[in-house]
Design goal:
Radius of gyration: 21 Å
Strand order of the largest sheet: 3-4-7-5-6
Strand content: 5-15%
Number of domains: 2
Number of helices: 19
Order of helices and strands: EHHHHEHHHHEEHEHEEHHHHHHHHH
Distance between the termini: 6 Å
Shape: globular
Largest sheet: 5 strands, mixed
């Protein structure tokens, strides 16, 4: 799977951008809701509500006709939609503002199916499952241990230059929904982001009423472990089943059938002790020969998918402040640091040292764009 694979239901992406369902046509309300003073709120409001749908989709190379529910789009096309919105509003932090506008209702049947689960654990498991189907470039998962519970979001492929947008939107939206469902009686411990603080980092603290940390190991919402068993106030098993049935009747999906995506998710779980092709095939319920053939049918190979996972893990390691090339080489299963350095230059066009140096000097956006160029050139799918 690459950035041109059409596996994202347009119907799902429309929940991001069709804010007319959630917006009250009043500039003062919008300013208060977004918690940002606008130079010309009337003009911005018009831009949000009045972007011509036909032009919006056409500019992203999407052939869309109202009422057509079977359209799938690629990551590249999603990024083109985000780019139009960010440029029209001149708001690099648009993900925060849009996420703050997205209520349970705005998430439609997906939101209803999630919040009507018996417990918060079940709610988050449902959200994670929907994410796999509706927006495969992101992966969501929950984790509970003795000291804390967390809900994590990470990208399974490069979303540059708008990585922040997708993480901001989902983190703010889920944070607000959690606060609403618990009546604000169970504050989270922290909200963590896996990337360095952006230029608009101070705006994050207007949206989250708990500590906000950047440069952390994962992007996640963190709270006490007891939250996992918190009983959902809207729990209704029949409603949950009905909502999910309606969701997938109206928004067809195809991500779960994409073998390269399934393989990448499998490899991520092995971190540092990657399986052989034969072992991975067994985990996926097929023979090594079948896996090799089916990957070839998708235009890729086991090694290319493994390299894609290694590249992402390497960038995550450096983004979190890791500096030891030797340590990272071992974590990623390379024979030595020189083998890793050679692979890293093939992925990004830079040596690990050059990459870290540019990152220290604020070159994150440039570096991510270089990663996209590597993907587009066919080095990494």
């Amino acid at each position: 799977m690459d950035i041109d694979t059409k596996c994202i239901p347009l119907g799902h992406i429309q929940t991001y951008f069709d804010l007319r369902r959630a917006l009250i046509p009043d500039a003062n309300w919008l300013e208060k809701r977004s918690q940002h003073v606008m130079h010309n709120p009337h003009e911005i409001l018009e831009a949000i509500i009045g972007i011509d749908q036909h032009d919006f989709y056409r500019n992203a190379g999407i052939d869309y006709r109202p009422g057509d529910s079977g359209v799938f789009i690629s990551v590249r096309q999603v990024l083109a939609l985000v780019d139009q919105a960010v440029r029209a509003l001149d708001m690099p932090y648009l993900g925060l503002a849009m996420g703050n506008l997205m209520t349970i209702t705005h998430h439609g049947m997906a939101g209803m199916a999630a919040v009507s689960q018996p417990t918060l654990r079940g709610c988050l498991e449902t959200v994670a499952r929907f994410c796999t189907e509706l927006f495969p470039p992101l992966e969501m998962y929950g984790r509970v241990d003795v000291e804390e519970a967390s809900f994590c979001i990470e990208q399974t492929m490069v979303l540059a230059p708008y990585t922040h947008f997708f993480l901001e939107l989902n983190m703010v939206s889920f944070y607000n929904i959690f606060t609403h469902l618990t009546g604000g009686e169970h504050p989270l411990t922290s909200v963590d982001f896996s990337y360095p603080e952006p230029a608009w980092g101070h705006i994050y603290r207007r949206y989250f009423k708990c500590p906000v940390n950047f440069g952390m190991a994962e992007t996640r919402l963190v709270g006490p472990p007891s939250l996992a068993d918190y009983e959902m106030p809207l729990a209704n098993r029949l409603m949950a089943m009905s909502a999910e049935k309606t969701l997938f009747e109206n928004i067809p999906t195809r991500a779960i059938r994409l073998l390269p995506l399934r393989l990448r998710r499998l490899l991520v779980r092995y971190y540092g002790a990657f399986p052989s092709l034969e072992a991975a095939a067994s985990d996926l319920g097929m023979s090594g020969r079948t896996l090799r053939r089916r990957l070839a049918d998708e235009g890729t190979t086991y090694q290319r998918e493994l390299d894609a996972v290694r590249q992402k893990m390497a960038m995550d390691y450096f983004a979190r402040g890791g500096a030891s090339v030797t340590e990272l080489s071992l974590l990623l299963g390379f024979a030595d640091s020189s083998a890793f350095a050679k692979a890293f230059r093939r992925w990004t066009g830079l040596s690990p040292t050059e990459y870290q140096e540019q990152q220290r000097h604020g070159g994150e956006g440039l570096l991510l764009q270089q990663a996209v160029l590597a993907v587009e050139s066919g080095v990494v799918e």
